Amino acid sequence: MTEDLVDDSWLRLDNQICFALHAASRAFNALYRDVLSELGLTYPQYLVMLVLWEHGELGVKQIGEQLRLDSGTLSPLLKRLEANGLVRRERSAVDERSVTVRPTATGAALREQAARLPGRIAAATGLDVAEVAELRDRINRLTAALDTAELPDSPAACG
């Protein structure tokens, strides 16, 4: 096989794993936009609430680490959630640069409504529960590998 043939094959859009994941992400975002409108949340706000429902009170830095968001993206999200009465932000008395966030009673109560969303989303995938779990685990392994990857020289090693 010549180098040109390998390049032609790997440069087809339908052979790109990055595009397949991008398209799936956009499809998920559209689906979540519809179901989350019932809760009055955007998808990024929902992710913040998931982290807070799981951990209770967290620092902004810890939320950002969990969600892979920088403070410039996270701060406006938190301000909107606070303005909507779902979270409370407080500066640390010890270190005023540090801000903690926790759900309010209203934010905590929203968890009950959100509890039915994962089942609805899973059903929309057309996959059974085991397949969803397997796919999630494979994507998590892919993400971990990409986080530590060094870019290979061989075009056949990517895609």
Automatic annotation (TrEMBL):
HTH marR-type domain location: 14-144
Keywords: Cytoplasm, DNA-binding, Transcription, Transcription regulation
Lineage top rank: taxon: Bacteria
Location(s) in or outside the cell: Cytoplasm
Entry keyword annotation includes Aminoacyl-tRNA synthetase: no
An example Gene Ontology molecular-function term: DNA binding
GO biological process, one term: response to stress
SMART domains (alphabetical): HTH_MARR
GO cellular component: cytoplasm
InterPro entries hit by this protein: HTH_MarR-typ, MarR/SlyA-like, Transc_reg_Sar_Rot_HTH, WH-like_DNA-bd_sf, WH_DNA-bd_sf
PANTHER family: ORGANIC HYDROPEROXIDE RESISTANCE TRANSCRIPTIONAL REGULATOR, TRANSCRIPTIONAL REGULATOR, MARR FAMILY
Entry protein name: MarR family transcriptional regulator
Organism: Kitasatospora acidiphila
